[in-house]
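User: Hi! I'm working on a homework problem where we have to compare a predicted structure to a textbook description. Could you give me the structure for the chain below?
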Amino acid sequence: MAGHSHFANIQHKKGARDAKRGKIFTKLAREITVAAKLGLPDPAYNARLKAAIAEAKAESMPKDSIERALKKGTGGGDQDNFEEARYEGFAPGNVGLIVEALTNNRNRTASELRTVFDKHGGSFGATNSVAFNFQRVGQIVYKAEAGSEDKVMEAAIDGGADDVLSNADGHTIFCAPDALHAVTKALEAKLGEPESARLDWRPTVTVDVDADKAKKVLDLIAALEDNDDVQRVAANYEMSDEVMAKLSG
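Assistant: Happy to help. Predicted structure tokens:
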């Protein structure tokens, strides 16, 4: 009986892990399709598509799934009319959130996200109620092994980037949105393939949160990211090392 129980527990955990993996693959496939549809279908000339395919490979997404998603974006296969949508709102502590989604039904997605905000103590906002606290940027990320802070800074300056943030975890390079492809190509020549290269939202105004608020903010973000339509969530919270340590503990 104990053996059966143990087996059932393993199967349950495996099922949950497979379900999560399936959800990741669905989001990645959708991003590949839309990236190919909105830009050139060749990743060599489409930074967003190249980044989406690289992320899919990093997640061990099957090659045929990647090719099928790419085919959909170039007019082949069944057409899912997904479009980009942006939603905004506030987490506990007045932390601003920008939610980027790919959806085939804006009203349904908005309703689902409003429910998530309400359930986790946040508030669903109107368009541009939060975005003025962020800057739209191109963001290129390299692992720490790509080079020293000076080497990456030099490559970024030469490549036309606007800013670099380096720490023990790696390097994040920022540039103008319309310069993302050119800057990425220039960096690749000196630093190799980046871990990711995409458009993102960078906070220009941040909000400090204590441990209690921080947990609520992170729980809301996790719940939003669990929605099938949500691709990513940007937030403008600041967390001290003490708060991060307390949450980790």
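For your comparison, note the following. The helical segments are 2-38, 47-58, 63-73, 106-119, 149-159, 180-191, 211-225, 241-248. Residues 45 and 181 are 8 Å apart (CA to CA). Good luck with the assignment!
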